[in-house]
Amino acid sequence: MKAYVDKETCIGCALCPTISPDIFSMEDDGKAVAIDDQIPEDVVADAQDAEEQCPVAAITVD
Ligand code: F3S
């Protein structure tokens, strides 16, 4: 599985790196970014949590 952040939609609330720090981080532009690699099996649930809880639905995990 991979994770993506739609930077146009992200409002920089910083919730995703709090929920799933292995996958998401904040960039200098104040928006979140997801790692480029496949999501490790043991943190898929965290990444999906972040996807569900992002207030503007900017995250896709598939
Ligand atoms: Fe942005 Fe949503 Fe994360 S608003 S910082 S992608 S939780």
TrEMBL record:
Residues making up the signal peptide according to the UniProt record: none
GO terms of molecular function: electron transfer activity; iron ion binding; iron-sulfur cluster binding
Domain 4Fe-4S ferredoxin-type: 1-29
Keyword Iron-sulfur belongs to the record: yes
PROSITE patterns linked: 4FE4S_FER_2
Keywords: Electron transport, Iron, Iron-sulfur, Metal-binding, Transport
Record bears the keyword Electron transport: yes
Biological function: Ferredoxins are iron-sulfur proteins that transfer electrons in a wide variety of metabolic reactions.
Annotated protein name in UniProt: Ferredoxin
Lineage of the organism: Bacteria, Bacillati, Mycoplasmatota, Mollicutes, Haloplasmatales
